[in-house]
Structure formats: structure tokens, C-alpha cells
Amino acid sequence: MMSNIIDGKQVSLEIRDSLTEEVKKLQKQDIQPGLAVVIVGSDPASQTYVRAKAKACNNIGIYSEVYELPEEITEQQLLEKIDELNSDMRIHGILVQLPLPKDINEQAVIERISADKDVDGFHILNAGKLLVGQDSYLPCTPAGCIELIKRTGETLEGKHVVVIGRSNIVGKPVALLSLYENATVTICHSRTQNLAEIVKQGDIVIAAVGRPKMITADMVKDGAIVIDVGINRVDGKLVGDVDFEQVKDKASFITPVPGGVGPMTITMLLQNTIVACKKSV
Ligand SMILES: Nc1nc(=O)c2c([nH]1)NC[C@@H]1CN(c3ccc(C(=O)N[C@@H](CCC(=O)O)C(=O)O)cc3)C=[N+]21
């Protein structure tokens, strides 16, 4: 039997191959896409992600700069760094790694990034464009989820997509993207009553809550597609929001953690950076 496990790493490699070709074409025209990644403080997990992003850039030929700023930096200093990157012609995409230290206003920092360089798709202008259906930078994790669903060969059209989680960076945008694919969408959250019953109606379940293994087999419809956005560290191991071992025998397709949505998030970031570069010329 063919595996029902969606290999996010493999899908990512396939997409990155074609992105590499695109970068080569641009380089032949003397155009070099560039990404700046800014990280504040020295949280080890954040540092790992930032390094993974820089490495992915280098692998496909995108120029990258990483700015590791001290925990004690003021909001003003961070805003000045962003101003500098906004006017840097070599830089087409700017990513400020979240979360930021408590004393820094995250939204103010995101809003300072030029919307044209907002390859995370977190700027209010891009969020607003997404809401009304205008062309915008799509947030990377939601875009990666939709891409993974499409690559199963299944369509979202007419399907009931149940999203668990309502964050601005995953839950809300992935619900909107599903809607634009003509899915029927339900958003569940911490106050949802009868969560298990609602999730069980999902032809497609997208879990983005941040609670290890909270989606169990009894909550999932036979043959559902299950996309696990969770990245929870439990005893030093990465665990999703879905109880993978239980649910994999019920799902028609399921993403593992690690090796599912995570690599796709980075791939979509690379794609957005190339788009940003092309728009700038
Ligand atoms: N401005 C901003 N943009 C982000 O996109 C952003 C952010 N801040 N803050 C943190 C989260 C987290 N995130 C991940 C990206 C890739 C993996 C990934 O590739 N994970 C691997 C495993 C990596 C490991 O082993 O730790 C996988 O799932 O297979 C995970 C998490 C992006 N984030």
C-alpha cells in the first residue's frame, strides 16, 4: 500500500528545485534575490529556526543576512535596523523572528517593515489584502498547508475544512486560504463547545493550537486529511498537535512532525522572497 504520510521534506525539495532554477534565471539577468533575518535575544529554538532559514537561502542561491541583536535592544533601535533594511537595495525580504522580548511592541515592529518586503505576510496591509482577496504575500505556514493538501491530489473545493486555532499567523489565514479554495470552513478554538464532534465532521483537519497530541483518533473522520501545524517540545522531542500514531491509521493523508508543515514554511518563505525580488525590478 502507498504511504498516506505526506512527506513535507520531499515536497519541499521538489519546490526548492524549481525555485533554484528561478534564482539562476534571475542571476543570469544580474538580479540577486536577498533576504534579511533579524533575531532578538538568544533563545536556542529561535536560533535554530533562523539558521535553518539562512541555510535554505544559501542552498537555493538566495543571498541572506542574519542580524543577531541583543535581548536588551530598545524598540527604537530595532525600528532603526528595519529602516536600514527597508532602504537596502540588496534586501528584498525582511523577516523579524517572533516572538520578540516583552518590552518590544511586536505589531509596531512588523508594521515598520515595508509591506513590499514583508515576506512573512504579517504586515497589516498584507493581512488586509488577504482578507479582501487581493494579491498579497501569503503567510508562509498557511500557504504551506494549502500546498501540501493540493499535492495529495485532493481538492479543497466543497470540502469541510475544520481549523483548530485562531491565531493571526496560522489559524485565521489558513481558514481564509481554504475559503478561497471554495472549502466550507469552521474555525474552532479554546472556547469551542463539543470540539470533538465538530472536528469529526472535517474532511480536512488543520490543527494549529500548540497542545501536544490533543487531536486523538476518536475525533477524526475516517479518511480525513490531517495537517498538523503543531511544534511542541516534549522531553526534548518535537511533537505535533495530533496524536500521529493513533490518527495515521484513520486519515487518508497525514503530515508528520517533524518533516511535515515545518519544512514547507521555509520553502514558502523562499518563494515569497523570490516574488519580492521580481516585483522590485
Ligand atoms: N517572523 C517569523 N516567521 C516565521 O515563519 C516564524 C517565526 N517568526 N517564529 C517561529 C516560527 C516557527 N517556524 C518554523 C519554521 C520551520 C520549522 C521546521 O522546519 N521544522 C522542522 C524541524 C526542525 C527541528 O528539528 O527543530 C520540521 O518540522 O521538520 C519549524 C518552525 C517559523 N516561525
Automatic annotation (TrEMBL):
Its EC number is 1.5.1.5, 3.5.4.9. Residues 139-279 form the Tetrahydrofolate dehydrogenase/cyclohydrolase NAD(P)-binding domain. One of its GO terms (biological process) is methionine biosynthetic process. One of its GO terms (cellular component) is cytosol. It catalyses: (6R)-5,10-methylene-5,6,7,8-tetrahydrofolate + NADP(+) = (6R)-5,10-methenyltetrahydrofolate + NADPH; (6R)-5,10-methenyltetrahydrofolate + H2O = (6R)-10-formyltetrahydrofolate + H(+). NADP(+) binds at residues 165-167, 231. CDD domains: NAD_bind_m-THF_DH_Cyclohyd. InterPro entries: Aminoacid_DH-like_N_sf (IPR046346), NAD(P)-bd_dom_sf (IPR036291), THF_DH/CycHdrlase (IPR000672), THF_DH/CycHdrlase_cat_dom (IPR020630), THF_DH/CycHdrlase_CS (IPR020867), THF_DH/CycHdrlase_NAD-bd_dom (IPR020631). It holds the Pfam family THF_DHG_CYH_C. Gene3D superfamilies: Leucine Dehydrogenase, chain A, domain 1 (3.40.50.10860), NAD(P)-binding Rossmann-like Domain (3.40.50.720). Keywords: Amino-acid biosynthesis, Histidine biosynthesis, Hydrolase, Methionine biosynthesis, Multifunctional enzyme, NADP, One-carbon metabolism, Oxidoreductase, Purine biosynthesis. Residues 6-120 form the Tetrahydrofolate dehydrogenase/cyclohydrolase catalytic domain. Belongs to the tetrahydrofolate dehydrogenase/cyclohydrolase family. Homodimer. This is Bifunctional protein FolD. It comes from Desulfuribacillus alkaliarsenatis.
